[in-house]
Amino acid sequence: MQPLLIDNVNRTLRDDLTATIRSGSRVAIAAASFSIYAFQELREQLEGVDELRFIFTSPSFVTEKADRQRREFYIPRLNRERDLFGSEFEIRLRNELSLKAVAKECADWIRRKACFKSNRTSENMMGFINVDDTNYMPLTGFTTVDLGCERGNNAYQFVQRTDAPLSQFYLNLFDQVWHDSEKLQVVTEQVLDNITNAYKENAPEFIYFVTLYNIFNEFLEDISEDVLPNEATGFKSSVIWNKLYNFQRDAALAIINKLEKFNGCILADSVGLGKTFTALSVIKYYENRNKSVLVLCPKKLHDNWVTYRSNYVNNPLVADRLRYDILYHTDLSRTSGQSNGLDLEHINWGNYDLVVIDESHNFRNGGKITTDENDENPRENRYLQLMNRVIRAGVKTKVLMLSATPVNNRFNDLRNQLALAYEGDSSQLDAKLKTSSSLDDIFRQAQTAFNRWSKLPAEERTTKTLLEMLSFDFFEVLDSVTIARSRRHIMQYYDTTGIGRFPERLKPVSRRPRLTDLPSAVSFNDIFVSVTELNLAIYTPSDFILPSRLEKYLDNKGDGSLANLSRSGRERGIRQLMSINLLKRLESSVNSFRLTLTRIKDYIGRTLADIDAVASHQAHATVNDYDFGDGLDFDEREDSVFIGGRKTRIDLADMDYVQWRKYLAKDYENLKTLLYMLADITPAHDSKLQMLVSDIRAKFSSPINPGNRKVIVFTAFSDTARYLYDNLAPTVRALGAHVGLVSGDNVATTLRDVSREGFDFNKILTLFSPVSKEKATLYPHINEEIDVLIATDCISEGQNLQDCDYLINYDIHWNPVRIIQRFGRIDRIGSRNAVIQLVNYWPDMDLDDYINLKGRVEARMKVSVLTATGDDNPLSAEEQGDLKYRRDQLERLRKEVVDIEEMNTGVSIMDLGLNEFRLDLLDYMRRGDDIEHTPYGLHAIVPSGPGTPPGVIFVLKNRNNDINIDRKNRLHPFYMVYISKDSEVIVDHLDPKGLLDRMRHLCRGRAEPIPELCHRFNAETRDGRHMGTYSRLLGDAITSLVRTKETTDLFSFLDGANGSLFGNEVSGLDDFELICFLIIK
User: Fold this and answer.
1) What percent of the chain is predicted at pLDDT more than 70?
2) What DSSP designation does 389 have?
3) pLDDT at residue 1081, as a whole number
4) C-alpha–C-alpha distance, residues 158 and 146, integer Å
5) Neighbour-count burial of 179, counting CB atoms closer than 10 A to its CB (0-12 exposed, 13-18 middle, 19+ buried)
6) What is the pTM of this model?
7) Which among 930, 919, 1080 is positioned nearest to 995, based on CA atoms?
8) Which residues are within 8 A (CB) of 50 and not within 5 positions of it... i.e. 6 or more apart?
């Protein structure tokens, strides 16, 4: 009989085999791959055969695996083995979601009828089929494409059928190879194991890791042990590591990874998530590697950092022997003197391997060189000093930045901080990032997108809209060098069973105490008006130097140039600062305001006396700088006007002291009037103080949490804190409790035993918050506690005082973020309090008047006293915008406690990074599980919950690269869609972080299938045979992807982007491959 050609068009191989295979037939197949869907096509015929012998013509399922260096040969083999569950041309069949049912039937059949062997050599073998005495050849694989059921990508696919006696050669050839044990290895069990995996019930956690493996597989390929934390350093045995919560450990590992790979990282976790402890664990890691570490922090945070490196019994980390240096941000502008035991003249700034910058947002404005009013004497700001003296100089320096607010209202804030990590040379980071644009272009485009977004109507100006407008590259940058988690993120996506929850925030209480209860006394407004009339010329003597004597006060440097910033510029800065300071101190307390007025009046009085002595030729006198002492709050003390520049010392004879005296005399009289107006307001008539006493009494008698009497009172000024301590102590002692005082200048307590044995900053805090501060370990011999703590902003950051549940802002800080940072001392994860309360004491005046008053004073003080005409110098648009921002945020704080990331008008880098998922995968891969052979199309079932309604999360792979043409999908070529059972898209593919977060939350820790859910699902689908509902949802999910692309294409076209509107089409189902899916019941 002549051979017959089968063209797989008019007649298919499947049709011929259906007719040829009979009951009792013996089938032999040699092919590169075996597909369960090919089995499904011939299932009826194959059920009746006596046996089927199958040879994999290339190594498949054999025991030897290629080593890492030969991985390129291993990948094709892996693909052949995966063809068990359908080849790349059988996607349509896989997407019908019948894998489970088909695999189960196929496995049952193999156990009864089939034997599989594999070529174990590198020799090529030809593929063919023998059915009894009929031969079909050539054959590539045993798939639906080779059977002619699917088109595939072959230009033609002819198969020749040969019957006996001509077929005998192939029958003998197969038998000869089949019995050659040198060439073949039996792999039936391995094939069965793989197919069984396709229909057994899967643990949710396994599906989570299957998702991660597919999406982040390239990360595993690229990973180098050099950029992963080296556990041999022993840092995981340290005290600090074992004090970290699970989310802090995730952050610490990710930080080390980013520091090693990109040289820098910003940790921007929200207030109350313990950034300090996370950073300490990173410091410990590098110190264990014998690296030199510098912590740069604001002065007010000195005690936070110095505690953990001190060899004191009250240091809970003393066993870790941390040894980092501590310097202040302001020290960067100094060239001499001592700071924290370090000689600034001799310190080797360039010898630090790691710099940890606390409150790195202080450097967000980038580098600037300032000059005097003659455009001379250039001077670098702190940012440039940090860049040039610490980072660029000496050894290669890694940079870890800590800030809850790295972005204010522009993305350049972020870029300027990141620039510290790459020494200001963006090409260093460009080379390490997988981006298509340069870093500068990425941030420029991001700022443009933000500017467009900020002009949208309020209802359209959502975070989701902004995310959709930002590019793939921008997220790649954020993902590479930032870690930012909100409290909501931690509660939703981490197991906090062993930690506890955040307490519930009660609605803030707003108090509006009057200045005094005296009937004829003045009001806030009266005093504010008087304050605005002050010239404060006492702070600007340089404005009155005679022109003929001016050169005398310009100092020459060694190179002949003129040194330091303009005196008058510095003095005007001080004058503006002090005018604002007066308003702040009035708003803080009558006592604080009165002390400041008295200091200024006495200073002016002494100066007037000196002027009069010079005028009458009785003496020679000079004008010296005012001693500011403790008259400033923490933020003001670190103002640049107090750092660096020369102190003022001017000979009165060189001044137009007659003119100056007129201004001073006028201020002197105004100050006397102000003091007279306040004279009768004693503590007994201080309405604000008496309201505080009432609030503390009420808290003691009616705690908001059973048995908890603790209260923190925050104020911006040390002398207000001391005033409150002195006046509250008798009342609180009478109530059977104790008071503690912590300010930058002093500490105090009414605890006698503690006072006798000595106390410090940390001891007071430990006795106030004994559980969170581990008092039982540090001070087991002290039985009493402090219930009322009065504090300044020296503890507004970096302290865990969550034993307390009640916080009073005795004065409202000008910066709204500071209010939230203060509240973050008690609003912390793991709190034992069910609820917490914020109480704000507002000045008794309208908020708009309050904010505008500051603006007016700032404007008035921007210019020289001599050139002021009585009109305010207009504020810049930026300054006006800043005032509006503060007004809006303070208004919000009257009604609710907002998270710090919500304070920044939509610019937040929270919840965008994907690094924790990569580290999850890495940890899983270290267990040694074989995830590579996992078939596509597996699923698991989990229960629904808050934020995760019933539906399906599909994980897909796109086979058409063009769908990511606008580079919006960060996971490309993988796509995830969360769709409800009603086909409503819950989370689309443009929010992969949200999708992976939900998947992690639903799956992590569920290492076994959930029996009751699996039983329900199997009953509904008849063991996976009836998957029509889920197949329809898959189709709807893919349709949503195509529609999203069409929409973005349209907008790109209308915006003038290059390319055809209807180019790069994605037709739908067949363009996507189903990796796995998670059913939420």
Assistant:
1) 78
2) I
3) 92
4) 10
5) exposed
6) 0.66
7) 1080
8) 24, 25, 26, 113
User: CA–CA separation, 858 vs 999, rounded Å?
Assistant: 51
Q: Are 637 and 299 in contact (CB under 8 A)?
A: yes
**Reduced to 3 DSSP states, what percent helix, strand and coil does the chain have, rounded to the nearest 5?**
45, 15, 40
Token readout for 429 is 């980071």
Question: For residues 665 and 685, what is the distance between their CA atoms, to the nearest angstrom?
Answer: 31
Chain centroid, CA 103 distance in Å: 43
- Counting every residue written for the chain, the total comes to 1081
Does residue 271 have a pLDDT over 60? yes
Q: Does pLDDT of 385 surpass 60?
A: yes
Instruction: Tell the burial category of 74 from Cβ atoms under 10 Å away from its Cβ (0-12, 13-18, 19+).
Output: middle
- Residue 12 CB-density burial (10 A; 0-12 exposed, 13-18 middle, 19+ buried): buried
Q: List phi, psi (to 5°) of 287.
A: -65, -35
408: closest CA among 462, 366, 457? Answer: 366
Which of 36, 83, 38, 96 has its CA nearest to residue 57?
Answer: 83
Share of the chain above pLDDT 90, in %: 32
What whole-number distance in Å separates Cα of residue 307 and Cα of residue 316? 9
Q: Is the dihedral of CA 542, 543, 549, 554 positive or negative?
A: positive
What integer is the mean pLDDT of 20-28? Answer: 95
- Cβ(293)–Cβ(310) below 8 Å: no
Sign of CA dihedral 654, 656, 657, 660: negative
Q: What angle do CA 466, 360, 416 make, to 5 degrees?
A: 60
Determine the average pLDDT of the residues in 262-275: 87
Spatial CA neighbour of 325 closest among 346, 345, 311, 339: 339
Which tokens in the block code for residue 693?
């006493």
Diameter of the chain measured on Cα atoms: 139
Closest CA to 61 of 938, 927, 935, 933: 933
**339 beta partners:** 342
Q: What is the DSSP string of 430-442?
A: HTTS--SS-HHHH
Instruction: Produce one character per residue of 841-865: b if its CB has 16 or more CB atoms within 10 Å, e if not.
Output: bbbbeeeeebbebbbebbbbbbeeb
Which residues, 6+ apart, have CB-to-CB distance to 685 below 8 Å? Answer: 516, 517, 518, 521
Residue for token pair 């940090």: 386
Q: pLDDT tens, 97-118? A: 677 888 889 999 999 999 999 9
Mean pLDDT of 925-930: 74
429: amino acid identity, one letter: L
Beta strand pairing status for 379-380 and 128-131? unpaired
Kindly write down the DSSP assignment for every residue of 883-922, as one continuous string: HHHHHHHHHHHHH----GGGSSTT---TT---HHHHHHHH
Measured CA to CA in angstroms, residue 639 lies from 338, 390, 566, 643, 721 at distances of 19, 21, 16, 7, 22
Rounded average pLDDT over 178-202 = 88
pLDDT of 944-997, one tens digit each?
Answer: 998 899 999 999 888 766 555 445 677 878 889 999 989 999 998 888 888 998
pLDDT at residue 129, as a whole number:
96
- What is the C-alpha to C-alpha distance for residues 268 and 483, in angstroms, rounded to an integer? 6
